[in-house]
Amino acid sequence: MKKKGVAYLGGKKITFNKGSLHRQLKVPEDKTIGVTNLRKIKRAKVGSMVRIPTSTRTNKDFKVTKLMKERAVFGLNISGN
Q1: Structural domain span for residue 29
Q2: C-alpha distances in angstroms, 43 versus 5, 50, 55?
Q3: How many domains does the chain have?
Q4: d(CA 9, CA 13)
Q5: For residue range 25-72, what is the model confidence (pLDDT) as tens digits?
């Protein structure tokens, strides 16, 4: 069962599925994805490839999807960066 998280952005309460981007990038939830990697995904165009180091592999290429970009931007907004 997916865990729900709660965040407040701009005074609004937002619920979201915790760990969705971690599962999409195959990064264990006890490891951080990193602000640098989130920014890399945010800058990339949909359909392009980005190289992200994970804890299971040194570097892994991922195809950027619209959903991945949305999750990365949300992560940046939540972290305040």
Answers
A1: 20-79
A2: 25, 10, 22
A3: 1
A4: 7
A5: 888 888 888 899 999 999 999 999 998 876 666 678 889 999 999 999
